[in-house]
Amino acid sequence: MMAKPQLERRLIGALLRIPFQTIVAGIHDGLTEAGYHDLSPSHFVIFQHMRSEGIRSTELAERAQMTKQSMGYLVSYLESHRYVERTPDPSDGRAQLVRLSQKGWEVARLSTAIVEQFERDWESYLGAERMGQLRSILRELSAIMDAG
Question: Residues in the chain with pLDDT < 50?
């Protein structure tokens, strides 16, 4: 007799998504508690892919795997709420860079602190060795995906 497939078996996508969604919800809750009531999880992709020197909206859209129009909407919203600013791209006068404003950097720092707390909590659950293994495996997979 063949064994029944496990209905509770989760595929790797779900196993990656669940912790990710937990972090996103934690960031949103933490930012809301800190008074940033005008941000939603959809805005976080901009902070995630931002560079200190700024980045073009088209590259943000590519990195976030979304349309240029959708990214433009998010950037315009964050600009109108003073989280980002658009400045001329010094390498191409026709293009603009999106940069974090002082307020945007405050959000980025707070978000980083929230994620670091998740990491400490997870390390307390898993132990330092297993957390290090998890981090190492995820870095390796990320490098493979970035190269491919």
Answer: 1, 3-4, 7
